[in-house]
Every structure is written in structure tokens, then in C-alpha cells.
């Protein structure tokens, strides 16, 4: 599978013949200033929760590409009200089949609200089964034993996990999360965007390697095969 990183927690995966985009926050991210939002391809956009740094560019990308936005009931309602034509609800515990494969939502331990402070539904992560392989994006979350349920549903090729600490898991908990979901390949996200989530990349890789887990930290705009 081809994964492209767009900074913060935004990335896309080409799987099942579709471009699947997650948590689009690009135009507001100074570190992603060289990324052209209007050139990003998307057939589906998954939004893990309502914080601006995970959905800022969702409407503009969906309206340009015709992509289907998928998220909790509250996000489904919100994006529909914003005029997005293709939206689909998916709450934790639910699963749905699309033309690229099947997705199951899992709860994430994190707050979720819109910019005006209104409730944005339960924060989520997503596990995807596709013809090209399976992967899990935890969304913003703390470590939780519920992650063991992911491995019961899908045998993963890799997981995308936040590692920046403070607002989400840090390195140690992300290693434990990888063990819970039973993968030895991790793509780290949600780090460096602000000073309080700065990452010591060399230390992170060393700790993951010591746990026999491969940590990928692609540069912003970089694509990797995984």
C-alpha cells in the first residue's frame, strides 16, 4: 500500500483502488505550507473527531473531489449541514462496507468538540480491511485496553498511531498500543506541529526498535510503500 503523509495526523492510503484520506489539516499547518491542498486526491475522507486540527480542510477537499466523508453521527450531521453531498455516519462499534473494503470504528480516549465549543461526538479510530491489506488508524487517543479488540477483528499490516505525547499517547504508550493491536509496523503521527508535542525522532526510533517494532516517520509530502 502507498501511504502519503501530509503533516500532523493527515495522511492518505491508496488501497482497494481508492484514495483514502484521514484527518485533513493542511492549510492551517505551517509545517505543511508546501503542500497544495487543491491537488490532494480523495475518494473517501475519514475524520476521527471534531477538533480543527483533524478536519479543517475536509469540506473543501470533499466538495472538490466528490469524496465521501465518514465520521461519527455528529460529524455526519455537521458535514451535511456544511453542504457536503456525500457523507456517511460511522460510530464506534459499527462497521460498513465500501467499494475498497470494510471499515470498523473503534472508540478513542480523547475529547471532541467543534471550534464553537459544541459537542462533536465520540472520538474514533478506524480499522480497514482492503484487498491490498489491513491497517488501523487510532485517531487521537490515550492508551486503552480496548485496542486489543482491533486484533480480534483484523490481522494488521501496519498501524498509524500518535506519538507526540501531551495531547495523545507518547512513545512508550504507542509501543504498547502496537503490541495490543499485534503489529510490528507503525507510522507515527501527531508530533512537531506545536512546541509542546516536539518529538525526538532518533529516540523514538530507538525505543521502537528495542521493542522489535519498525517506526516510520515520513517527511511531510513523502510517500512510502508499506
Automatic annotation (TrEMBL):
Entry keyword Hydrolase: yes
Gene3D superfamilies hit by this protein: Ribonuclease Z/Hydroxyacylglutathione hydrolase-like
Keyword Nuclease: no
Transmembrane segments: none
Keyword terms: Hydrolase
MF GO annotations: hydrolase activity
Pfam family, one: Lactamase_B_3
Residue intervals of the Metallo-beta-lactamase domain: 7-190
UniProt-recorded name of the protein: Metal-dependent hydrolase
Amino acid at each position: 500500500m502507498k501511504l502519503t503523509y501530509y503533516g500532523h495526523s493527515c495522511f492518505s492510503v491508496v488501497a482497494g483502488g481508492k484514495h483514502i484520506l484521514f484527518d485533513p489539516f493542511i492549510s492551517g499547518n505551517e509545517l505543511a505550507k508546501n503542500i497544495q491542498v487543491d491537488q490532494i486526491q480523495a475518494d473517501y475522507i475519514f475524520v476521527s473527531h471534531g477538533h480543527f486540527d483533524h478536519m479543517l480542510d475536509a469540506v473543501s477537499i470533499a466538495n472538490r473531489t466528490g469524496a465521501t466523508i465518514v465520521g461519527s453521527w455528529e460529524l455526519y450531521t455537521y458535514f451535511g449541514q456544511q453542504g457536503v453531498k456525500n457523507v456517511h455516519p460511522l460510530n464506534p462499534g459499527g462497521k460498513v462496507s465500501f467499494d475498497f473494503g470494510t471499515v470498523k470504528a473503534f472508540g478513542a480516549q480523547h475529547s471532541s468538540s467543534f471550534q464553537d465549543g459544541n459537542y462533536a461526538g465520540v472520538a474514533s479510530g478506524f480499522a480497514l480491511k482492503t484487498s491490498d491489506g489491513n491497517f488501523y488508524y487510532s485517531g487521537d487517543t490515550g492508551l486503552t485496553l480496548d485496542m486489543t479488540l482491533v486484533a480480534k477483528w483484523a490481522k494488521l499490516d501496519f498501524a498509524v498511531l500518535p506519538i507526540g505525547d501531551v495531547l495523545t499517547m507518547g512513545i512508550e504508550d504507542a509501543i504498547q498500543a502496537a503490541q495490543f493491536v499485534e503489529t510490528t509496523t507503525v507510522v507515527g503521527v501527531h508530533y512537531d506541529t506545536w512546541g509542546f508535542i516536539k518529538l525526538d525522532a532518533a529516540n523514538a526510533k530507538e525505543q521502537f526498535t528495542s521493542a522489535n517494532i519498525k517506526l516510520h516517520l515520513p517527511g511531510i509530502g513523502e510517500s512510502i510503500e508499506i
